[in-house]
Design a protein that fits this description.
One of its GO terms (cellular component) is mitochondrial nucleoid. By secondary structure, the chain is an all-alpha fold. About 60% of the residues lie in helices and about 0% in strands.
Length: about 130
């Protein structure tokens, strides 16, 4: 019986997509590692809690098949922040290079903003004749 569970988990691992932009943080890679650890002996692994194992497999299979995404479709492609899913994915990928503005500390950014505004807001006097 554990042989069929092992094969089902292996098939799920093959179907689960890998996100190469998330090195070390990819859910697919994590799932593969957990399956390898849980089934150390392959098909001969004895499972103590078969009900929990089946429940875990069914949950992961539903996530992989986008069951909930299809059951509860989104009205808009943005979140409350107005950021699209693609922009979120790009920010979370870690591969996007940070610009100089992103690397600055909050204090430095604030001081630059206020200092540049104060000089811009003050109108220059016309040269006296």
């Amino acid at each position: 019986m554990s042989a069929t569970r092992y094969r089902r988990f292996l098939k799920l691992c093959e179907e689960w997509p890998r996100d190469e932009s998330k090195k070390g943080r990819d859910l697919g890679t994590f799932l593969r590692q957990r399956v390898a650890a849980a089934f150390r002996e392959g098909e001969n692994t004895q499972i103590s809690d078969t009900e929990k194992c089946d429940q875990t497999y069914e949950s992961l299979a539903r996530i992989n098949a986008n069951t909930y995404k299809q059951r509860f479709p989104r009205v808009r492609d943005t979140s409350f922040t107005g950021v699209t899913a693609e922009e979120c994915k790009l920010m979370l990928s870690g591969s996007a290079q940070q610009s100089d503005d992103d690397k600055k500390s909050l204090w430095k950014t604030l001081t630059e903003r206020f200092s540049s505004k104060s000089t811009e807001e003050v109108p220059e006097k016309a040269p006296e004749k």
